Amino acid sequence: MSTVRKVGIVGWGAIGRVVGTALAEGRVGGAELVCVVDNRPLGEAAPARQATFEEALEACDLIVEAAGQGVVREWGERVLESGTDLLIASTGALTDEDLAKRMLVAGPGRVYFTSGAVGGLDLLQAARSLGPLDEVRLTTTKLPSTLEQPWMDEELLARMRSATGPVVVMTGTAREIPVKFPKSTNVAASVALAVGDLDTVRVQVVADPAAHHTRHVIEASGAHGAYRFEVAHLPDPGNPATSQVVPYAVLRSLAALAGQTGQIL
Predict the structure, then answer these.
(1) Rounded CA gap, 18 and 246, in Å?
(2) Pairwise CA distance, residues 220 & 204, whole Å
(3) Which of 212, 213, 216, 224 is catalytic?
(4) 79 with 57: CB under 8 angstroms?
(5) What pTM does this model have?
(6) Which helix (H) or strand (E) segment is 141 a member of?
(7) Is the distance from CB of 99 to CB of 78 less than 8 angstroms?
(8) pLDDT in tens, 15-58
(9) In whole angstroms, what is the distance from residue 258 CA to residue 198 CA?
(10) Helix (H) or strand (E) segment spanning residue 63
(11) Active-site residue, 224 included
């Protein structure tokens, strides 16, 4: 008889609400929602009891992070050391190499990452096994308002706000970009995790007032082949920095962890 995964969700926002509702309605066989952790009082909004992080570690064997990079930094190791598994949506936190190294050896809990808003990561991992990829490029295009950050100067903000076409906001590596855009560029970190090197992945962030879909283009090449993946998603209406598909990627990962058959892994 298979064991039902007892799941706690951290964050009741655009991602957590969709994932938690699906779990509560029994749409993920082999997994049940036990509790929700959030720093705001949720009252009747959540379909399971609201708990502290410590209570969630006691009650659950799998924690889903859906609340941002800060949660991974503050609680990631603690979750794993408690023996609880952790599914991370905010992969950008792992651009901190010291944190990444500690988390990848922490246990006895296991850490997992969801593919989020892009595909092809499994193929990049497979290709990397043949040898290093020589060049990896990611271009992310979003609405200007979703990319505004506190560190931006007035000149850059004015260019973004007055743009009539695409504006390159920043270029850099997958080590640099997610730190600057903590809510908008987890994809860069996910690609780097698949490739195995933060500095190999070159990232360009583009603001486009016509970007009704969030677009990610991944281009990679090496001695054994060349790869190109392009996706265009509708942003979540409640949180335009997140693509609508992300919580469903989390649910797919949960189904795999709960042992659902018929999954493409």
Answers:
(1) 10
(2) 14
(3) 216
(4) yes
(5) 0.86
(6) strand 133-142
(7) no
(8) 999 999 999 999 998 999 999 999 899 888 889 999 999 999 99
(9) 30
(10) strand 62-65
(11) no
